[in-house]
């Protein structure tokens, strides 16, 4: 039974009893009677009090705080503490403690409310934190971020790094701006002569211009490459094949396909996408043609290979003959050069002999001239000496001496030679 219920019953019994002015024997008997009556009354009404206590507990849990209006102390009046009994041999009833079960029920209800409030607060905090995390996003290197607000694309473009956006209202998508290689699906086309061929593994390398990105997405969506590049390549290949025969596509004009298709695709991108995409490279392998035509081309290639072999053999023979000719010419040129060298040597030798002879002649000439000059000088000197020596008188004297040796001279007067000479020599 609760302390409050017990206190209420005791108060009721005390109100019906008379207060005692003194502690006389008559008073003691009355007190004992009141105590016994109170205890018996309490015992008889215990079940009723328990019921009321339980109802009181339920009511108090909704309206009263955890603790009662009155604190639980040892000063609470009871049937045995406030009114002393005259019988000293009887044991006084111990103090009644608070109802623990009621206290636990009250505490448990408030703890549940606290847990509920804490859970709601935790959910709110986690939600706010999640919203903050979802609004912060990161753009990887080589990409840019484009934003949609309520489904409409915004003009804002962000570069690599951490950025913030409005949660629930704005969505972000990353677009790669570094060069990207795409491999197209197989494409079929028909040539001018009605032959179907298939282009496989066509690869194109493209790069997006950031300043034109929003414009292209607005017009063609985020998959704008399909409309501006892939579909245009298919269209240009079909146009090229429609204007060419299978032999031109497969053989003679194959190398011109890439340049023509690439240039036409670039022109289409400039016209439709304002030049927002750059075509860096285009690779178009040889198309697949029907098997029978491919077999014929194979046979043609075999014959062409045989012709190449024969042509190569002819070239080899011609090269051999040309080599022999060149070798013979080289030998003749070498012999000619050797002969010229020998002739030149002889010429040089003869010229050397001629020079030696001329030198000898000059030496001899100079020698003879020197001898003649010496002889001339000698004669001239002798003549000068004789001229000085052979004076007329000396001549006459010597003449006379030579004639004196002869006893007889025969001459015929002065008119003869000898007479004239003698006359001339000797004078008158």
List the helices and strands and how they pair.
Elements: H1 3-16, H2 25-44, H3 46-63, H4 100-135, E1 136-139, E2 143-149, E3 152-158, E4 161-164, E5 170-176, E6 180-183, E7 187-190, E8 196-199, E9 203-208, H5 213-220, H6 224-242, H7 246-252, H8 254-273, E10 277-283, H9 291-389, H10 392-404, H11 417-426
Antiparallel strand pairs: 1-4, 2-3, 2-5, 6-9, 7-8, 9-10
Helix pairs in contact: 6-8
Number of strands: 10
Strand portion: 5-15%
**Helix count, DSSP H or I runs of 4 or more residues:** 11
* Biggest sheet character: 3 strands, antiparallel
Helix content: 55-70%
Structural class: alpha+beta
The coarse overall form would be: elongated
**Which sequence of SSEs, written as H and E, runs from N to C?**
HHHHEEEEEEEEEHHHHEHHH
Q: What number is the mean pLDDT?
A: 76
Intertermini distance: 229 Å
Instruction: Identify low-pLDDT runs.
Output: 17-44, 59-95
| Arrangement of strands in the largest sheet | 3-2-5
Computed over alpha carbons, the radius of gyration is 77 Å
Question: How would you characterize this protein structure?
Answer:
Helix content is 62%, strand content 13%. The protein is built from 11 helices and 10 strands. The strands form 4 sheets. The protein has a 3-stranded antiparallel sheet with strand order 3-2-5, with helices on one face. Strand 7 (187-190) and strand 8 (196-199) form a beta hairpin. Helix 6 packs across helix 8. It is elongated.
């Amino acid at each position: 039974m609760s302390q409050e219920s017990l206190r209420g019953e005791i108060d009721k019994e005390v109100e019906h009893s008379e207060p005692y002015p003194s502690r006389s024997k008559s008073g003691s008997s009355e007190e004992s009677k009141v105590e016994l009556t109170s205890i018996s009354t309490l015992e008889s009404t215990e079940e009723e009090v328990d019921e009321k206590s339980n109802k009181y507990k339920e009511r108090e849990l909704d309206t009263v705080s955890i603790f009662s209006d009155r604190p639980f102390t040892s000063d609470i009046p009871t049937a045995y503490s406030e009114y002393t009994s005259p019988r000293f041999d009887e044991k006084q009833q111990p103090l009644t403690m608070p109802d623990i079960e009621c206290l636990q029920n009250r505490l448990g209800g408030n703890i549940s409310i606290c847990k509920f409030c804490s859970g709601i607060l935790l959910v709110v905090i986690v939600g706010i934190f999640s919203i903050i995390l979802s609004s912060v996003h990161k753009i990887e290197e080589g990409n840019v971020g484009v934003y949609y607000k309520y489904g409409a694309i915004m003009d804002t473009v962000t570069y690599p790094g951490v950025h913030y956006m409005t949660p629930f209202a704005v969505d972000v998508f990353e677009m790669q701006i570094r060069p990207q290689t795409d491999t197209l699906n197989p494409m079929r086309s028909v040539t001018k002569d009605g032959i179907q061929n298939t282009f496989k593994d066509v690869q194109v390398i493209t790069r997006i211009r950031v300043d034109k990105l929003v414009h292209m997405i607005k017009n063609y969506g985020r998959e704008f490459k399909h409309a501006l590049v892939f579909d245009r390549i298919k269209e240009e290949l079909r146009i090229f094949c429609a204007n060419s025969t299978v032999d031109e596509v497969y053989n003679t004009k194959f190398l011109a396909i890439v340049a023509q298709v690439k240039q036409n695709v670039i022109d289409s991108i400039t016209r439709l996408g304002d030049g927002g995409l750059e075509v860096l490279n285009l690779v178009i392998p040889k198309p697949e043609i029907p098997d029978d035509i491919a077999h014929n081309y194979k046979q043609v290639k075999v014959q062409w290979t045989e012709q190449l072999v024969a042509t190569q053999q002819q070239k080899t023979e011609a090269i051999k003959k040309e080599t022999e000719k060149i070798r013979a010419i080289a030998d003749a040129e070498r012999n000619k050069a050797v002969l010229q060298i020998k002739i030149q040597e002889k010429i040089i030798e003869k010229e050397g002999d001629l020079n030696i002879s001329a030198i000898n002649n000059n030496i001899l000439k100079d020698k003879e001239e020197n001898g003649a000059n010496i002889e001339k000088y000698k004669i001239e000197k002798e003549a000068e000496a004789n001229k000085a020596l052979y004076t007329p008188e000396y001549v006459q004297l010597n003449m006379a001496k030579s004639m004196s040796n002869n006893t007889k001279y025969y001459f015929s007067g002065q008119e003869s030679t000898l007479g004239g000479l003698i006359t001339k020599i000797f004078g008158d």
